[in-house]
Amino acid sequence: MSTSLKGRVAVVTGSTSGIGLGIARAFAGEGAAIMLNGFGDPAEVEQLRASLAAEFGVEVVYDGADLATAEGCEHLVREAERRLGGVDVLVNNAGIQHVSPVEDFPVDRWNAIIAVNLSSAFHTIRTALPGMKKRGFGRLINIASAHGLVASVNKAAYVAAKHGIVGLTKVVALETAETGITCNAICPGWVLTPLVQKQIDVRAAAGGIPIAQAERELLIEKQPSARFTTVEQLGGLAVFLCGPGGANLTGASLPVDGGWTAQ
Q1: What is the domain partition of the chain in residue ranges?
Q2: Alpha carbons 64 and 45: distance in angstroms, whole number
Q3: How many helices and strands (H and E) does the chain possess?
Q4: Under CATH, to which class is 9-191+230-262 assigned?
Q5: What is the side-by-side strand order in the sheet with 9-12?
Q6: Distance (Å) of CA 247 to CA 92, 181, 253
Q7: Which are the catalytic amino acids?
Q8: Partner of 212 at 20 to 30 A CA spacing, among 25, 59, 90, 181?
């Protein structure tokens, strides 16, 4: 285990699975104390928490705050400050999805996606910033998407939220430019998370084709590399942003998308 983040505290939203868990593991591997957040069976979440702590020898705590509300977002940051002593790194990763044409898009789904995918980042950032400014250090990392830079059909709320995350990132970067705090967005393309696996399974079932073919078709439509981005790659980038090499990198939207947004 490296110790580049030893003594730091990282809060990662939506970190009980997928990208968030990959980033939390990367931070723990660098010696950071971790606040996990997300949904899941309580026993399974506790097993995950305990296994991370044991594997990396760092303090790992969990809070199931509902990030669809401002109060939940504030609570998560306050709990990290209370239980771990502060928040040095905040990764806004939590997200939900719904696919539908605009005219048929359920209003409740729109509101939920904007709340979880966009507003939660605003609320956690505004709550964490005073402590970061007081300590003269902070790393704010917003997990946007290739859909924060380009659009796709039937994803109005998700694309709007992710474009909003990119804009929020730039504003926060400007406002904190002289404070020792950086704010950047990571914009993944296709990552093989449980959510994406479900899309592959649906495509395979609908087309009566093998899973491998459905996977290839999904990738090649958007991602020229025809390879999934891995959670380990995203974790590595997040660690870099927290280290000396990322100290003057702020306000950036960093695509990790196999060429998707280069087209």
Answers
A1: 9-191+230-262, 192-228
A2: 10
A3: 9, 7
A4: alpha beta
A5: 60-62, 33-36, 9-12, 89-92, 138-143, 181-188, 253-256
A6: 19, 8, 15
A7: 158
A8: 25
